[in-house]
Amino acid sequence: MDPFQVETAWEGQPLTREVAENLIVEKKRNLALVFPPDFSKVLEQCQAGPVIVTKNGRPVAVLVSVLEDDELERFVLAHTPGFRHLLDDAEQRIQKTGGVKHQDFWRVVDGAT
User: What is the per-residue DSSP string for 11-61?
Assistant: First the structure.
């Protein structure tokens, strides 16, 4: 996935919600995320712990601070349903078959190198 560029102005003017919506309608941008002015304060709150995001009083998301790349990778994998399903399937197969014996595993690994 390519990184995205953060824009705070359009043609020399502040990038408001209305301007962002028009950019999408006019197909000048595919996506626009408009954050409240105090959003940096919310991000700072993440340093102390997860921040619950609500819509109409109901929780819809959680903002979590990530300090290191490997921490981000673990977080994404742990919260990716497809990966979680893959792990659950593997665990069920191990429960049914008993898995692979330690010696057999290393024999296959050593043979592959």
Answer: TTEE--HHHHHHHHHTTS-S------TTHHHHHHHHTTS-EEEEETTEEEE
2 — pLDDT class (breaks 50, 70, 90)? low
Two tokens, residue 71: 């921490």
Tell whether pTM > 0.70.
Answer: no
* d(C-alpha 22, C-alpha 29), whole Å: 9
Q: Can you tell me whether residue 69 is helix, strand or coil?
A: helix
Give the phi and the psi of residue 71 in degrees, each rounded to 5: -65, -40
Are residues 65 and 46 in contact, defined by beta-carbon separation less than 8 angstroms? yes
Question: What mean pLDDT, rounded, does the chain reach?
Answer: 86
